[in-house]
Amino acid sequence: MKATAVAPSNIAFVKYWGNADPRLNIPFNNSISMNLSAAQTRTTVEFDPAFTGDTLVIDGRPVIGAARTRVVRHLDRIRALAGTDNYARVVSENNFPMGTGIASSAAAFAALSLAGTAALNLDLSEREMTALARQGSGSAARSIPDGYVELKAGGGHTTAFAYTLFAPDHWDLCDIVAIVSRREKPVGSSQGHGAAETSPHFTTRLAELPARLKTVRQALRNRDVQALGEAAEADAISLHVVAMTSRPPIYYWAPGTVRLIHAVQEWRRDGLPVYFTLDAGPNVHLICEAEHGADVLGRLSQIDEVIETLVSGPAEGAHLTDDHLF
Ligand code: DP6
Fold this sequence. Notes:
Blueprint: E1 2-14, E2 19-21, E3 26-27, E4 31-48, E5 55-58, E6 61-62, H1 66-82, E7 87-94, H2 105-119, H3 126-136, E8 148-151, E9 162-166, E10 173-179, H4 189-195, H5 202-222, H6 225-244, H7 255-269, E11 275-278, E12 284-289, H8 293-300, E13 308-312, E14 319-321
Parallel strand pairs: 5-7
Antiparallel strand pairs: 1-4, 1-14, 2-3, 4-7, 4-8, 5-6, 8-9, 10-12, 10-13, 11-12
Helix pairs in contact: 1-2, 2-3, 5-6
The structure holds ligand DP6.
Ligand DP6 binds next to helix 2 and helix 4.
């Protein structure tokens, strides 16, 4: 009754922002992402009738409070599927530095879903696994399939699932996270999702999305970095406009965020094809083709606000391993 899974984090080019059904994490809109090779979580789950409660250890530290409760709720979903009430021991490790502000919940809930169901010998299809992961964290659904992935809004639990658009080797894109702040973000994504509908710009964002999704699918298919980058930048800014005009407003940007947005535009004017995107936080993801990765890294090293960088290519999705953590 023990299993271990490894899952990547992912970066969305068209982002999920706002829940049609917050209880089930059913998004208002489809989203499209790439799994990140350098940001992975490994999780071992063991169920045992002798355990007297669920325990959670992340990066060597016992976890209590809200973070543990969120994991226990997900274990409850897995237990309900298997018809068991055994408690679990969950041990998880991230291969990227803690406190970098990189959203690890996508990798965490993807790994937990796969390891937890495998530990109880549940046989879920990939589609079912993505829907299960989505209930833990919406973006976690996209960390189950390989490579470039789309999460369908769907409208219901079984129809809001994720699937591979293109395998990791389809296109050697590079995602460089530039860490500009290590401060814990003041407002989590779930609160942001909840406030989205209070922004007068939310309906505009939703109206733009069908065309943008089509553009991004096509840009990925054609390996067209300019079309992808322009759409990804427009989408990130649209999300932040919604966040900044929600009630109450949410300002995720730090001074380094603005500095990098300006730098990216300058570098493009110099002829370097690089684009940015932002999640619900201050750190900037720089997107380029692999051949330009070193150039982008060199330029980032000249910018005072950049504390650290993390370079990823496209990665496979969640998978099981025998390399248990205990
Ligand atoms: C801005 O609800 O998946 O990253 O609160 O970390 O579980 P957690 O996030 P989630 O929202 C993701 C929001 C986003 C956009 C995206 O990844 O699509």
